[in-house]
Amino acid sequence: MHTVAVLALDKVIPFDLATPIEVFTRTVLPDGRPAYDIRISGVTPAVDAGAFTLHAPWGLDALAEADTIILPGCADLTAPVPDEVLDALRKAAADGTRIASICSGAFILAATGLLDGLRATTHWRAAALLARRHPEIDVDADVLYVDSGQFLTSAGAAAGLDLCLHLIRRDHGSAVAADAARLSVMPLEREGGQAQFIVPDQPPTPQGSVLEPVLRWLGDNAARDLTLDQIAAHAGMSARSLNRRFREQIGTTPLQWLLRARIRRAQHLLEATDHAVDRIAGEVGFGSATAFRDRFKRVVGTTPKSYRAAFRAG
Asked: Suppose 8 and one of 47, 207, 239, 282 were both cysteines; which one would form an S-S bond, judging by CB atoms 3.0 to 4.6 Å apart?
């Protein structure tokens, strides 16, 4: 299980603190096991969160045991970061721990010096101040978040949700991230301002629909190079009638539904196997690797190779 330590300092912004706790706590693996162990860490057991006092069950020693450290924003940007916090973060970074900030949490990470020479972001209202205080950092106020590998930064609170989903995709693949997004009633956002990398679920089929057996057959035969006429013949309908039924009941066409099924299968193979792209193209029903690459990029927003590099689980 991946351990996430959420560091809560005085004047922590409650929403920034709640975001990673909510998202990571709701994330489960395909077999139902929780994907993350969440630990709230603080310098002291009681943390001033403005409207309430927060209890932090773990001390700074939790940072040394974490795989990922999340730094929520703090409302008081003039408050100095305790030296013991900076030392603990530098030590964790030296051990290879991933550190991510939400909103003004970038100021905490910047104070360690770990962002020097890197591109980073924060809330747009604080970006100019971050740049003045830390001229060694390339501050970009125009993006949702920045992934610099070991160190990640995000803009405002809503962008923190995008960042958390991105971390889940990096750790466990897009399917797990999509489940986490749905449970959080969160739309799947773009990759740091780039194209959306997760294909949405197929539209639900109305219960008792005459299309249910057709959809099961399509799912079982998605790797075949099926035409609309072949699908219609199996369904015992004309191609025109089948298209109309699909649009009325599902909101898409049979061939569009089939394309999404193939792309989702391709995403799984890219995440879970070392199969060559050409082999995957054949396994998911494309006549050529060129056609597969073209359709994949059109639907997902990136190439199969880039998708695998970004979302390969493990």
From this structure: 47
Closest CA to 39 of 9, 15, 74, 63: 63
d(C-alpha 156, C-alpha 99), whole Å: 17
- Do residues 161 and 114 lie in contact, with contact meaning Cβ atoms separated by under 8 Å? no
Distance of CA 26 to the CA centre of its chain: 13
CA distances from 61 to 65, 175, 180, 222, 254 (A): 7, 33, 28, 51, 55
Q: 254-272 vs 174-183: helix axis angle to the nearest 10?
A: 120
- What is the three-class DSSP state of 5? strand
Nearest to 68 by CA among 122, 1, 141: 1
DSSP code of residue 26: T
Is the backbone of residue 81 left (phi > 0), alpha (psi -120 to 50) or beta? beta
In which element (H, E) is residue 166 found? helix 157-172
Q: What is the DSSP letter of 58?
A: B
CB atoms within 10 A of CB 237: 17
Q: What φ, ψ does residue 309 adopt, rounded to 5°? A: -60, -35
Name the amino acid, one letter, at 251: G
Q: Which residue carries 């747009």 as its tokens?
A: 124
- The one-digit pLDDT tens for each residue of the chain (314 residues) are 899 999 988 888 888 888 888 899 989 998 889 999 999 999 988 887 777 788 889 999 999 999 999 999 998 898 899 999 999 999 999 999 999 999 999 999 999 999 999 999 998 888 889 999 999 999 887 778 899 889 999 987 778 888 999 999 889 988 888 888 877 655 544 444 443 344 545 556 666 678 888 988 988 888 888 899 999 999 999 999 998 888 888 777 899 888 888 888 898 899 889 999 999 999 998 888 999 999 888 777 678 988 887 766 55
First CA to last CA across the chain, in angstroms? 12
CA atoms of 80 and 38, how far apart (whole Å): 26
